[in-house]
Design a protein that fits this description.
By secondary structure, the chain is an all-alpha fold. The protein is built from three helices and no strands.
Length: 100
């Protein structure tokens, strides 16, 4: 098998693990971990495609995705700190108590 196909299978596997975490877990930190896994799977797929076609477009898009992932992590963790400060738990089912 070609290495490009192996990278795509690995990216699909990582994306499915992230999606499974998002559907099953109620812990907010695990939800953020699932989102990060899905973003990294997209990064791996973009880099693999750009390497196989000899283009730099996919690798440039990865920088933007990494920037978005860093901002998502910072904002998500600040929301979790605020949630824990007000409720005492980071369970996502109790997050509706933060409504106005």
């Amino acid at each position: 098998m070609s290495t490009d196909i192996m990278f795509q299978f690995t990216a699909a596997f990582l994306f499915m693990i992230g999606l499974l975490i998002m559907m099953v877990k109620k812990n907010s930190i695990m939800l953020l971990l699932g989102i990060e896994l899905m973003l990294n799977a997209a990064n791996l797929s973009l880099v693999s495609f750009s390497q196989s076609y000899g283009l730099l477009d996919g690798q440039l898009q990865v920088f933007f995705i990494i920037t978005i992932a860093a901002a998502e992590s910072a904002i998500g963790l600040s929301i979790l700190v605020n949630l824990y400060r007000h409720i005492g738990s980071i369970n996502s089912s109790q997050a509706n108590k933060l409504k106005g």
